[in-house]
Amino acid sequence: ALAATHRLVAPDLRGSGRSVYAGELSWDRLADDAAALLARLGIERAVVGGVSMGSAVAIRFALRHPSKLRGLVLMSPVYPGEDLPLAEPARVAMHAMGEVGRRVLEQGIDALRPLFEPLPEPVRSVAMQMALGFDAKSVAATTRFLASNEQPMSSARDLAAIDVPVLLLPGIDPEHPAEVAELYARHFERASIVEQTAPDAMEKIARFCADLD
User: Fold this and answer.
1) Which of 122, 159, 161, 196 has the fewest CB atoms in 10 Å of its CB?
2) How far apart are CA 127 and CA 97, in angstroms?
3) Eight-class DSSP state of 197
4) How far is the C-alpha of 28 from the C-alpha of 44, rounded, in Å?
5) What is the spatial distance between Cα 139 and Cα 144, in angstroms, rounded to a whole number?
């Protein structure tokens, strides 16, 4: 629904997917990468969105580059701010990813397989096939960063500085508790919430973007 009416730019973040990077990562660096990509593409302002880790990059982008932002779409956010702890399932998952990232350097990409085993088919096969194309050092860099539990903001109160419309889609699993999106909604000035499980969720995202035109 969105692709039919809008230009979509879906980058592989530095150190993720087909983006090869083995150095240290930070939310500032990832957000600045997104801003640089928009500049390279000649896009002055955009609706920026992300899922899970990507939602944190979108938040950091909004805080650092407000003049480039038309709206935010945040799906399955996980980070409540440095003044609050991560949900325990999220903390455990981040730690597990860090352990796997270390094994990848020794054993190769096949060490990622345990991360995908719990997924249902055909998602598991597709995800594993995608992972086989990853760069081992990049995986180690990204998982090391996630395992550090660094957060994209000092507090959810920081979100009040983001003065654009925001669409929140709360998480639906223990690693992405819905309470995080609800926390965000209390601090954003212009936020609305859509349940991911709603049959028209994707259409609502498209409508949200269209309303900003």
Assistant:
1) 122
2) 15
3) T
4) 19
5) 8
Residues 190 and 160: their CA atoms lie apart, in Å, by: 9
- Angstrom distances, CA of residue 176 to CA of 87, 92, 158, 170: 8, 12, 20, 8
Written as one letter, the residue type at 157 is: R
Give the up-direction half-sphere exposure of residue 127: CA atoms within 13 A in the CB hemisphere.
13
Cα–Cα distance for residue pair 72/82, rounded to 1 Å: 21
Give CA angle at 195 (13, 79), nearest 5°: 45
Among 41, 74, 105, CA closest to 183: 74
**Which DSSP state fits 204?**
H
Segment 122-163, tens digit of pLDDT: 999 998 898 888 999 999 999 999 999 999 999 999 999 999
- 172: helix, strand or coil: coil
DSSP 8-state secondary structure symbol assigned to residue 128: H
Please state, rounded to an integer, the average pLDDT across all residues of the chain.
94
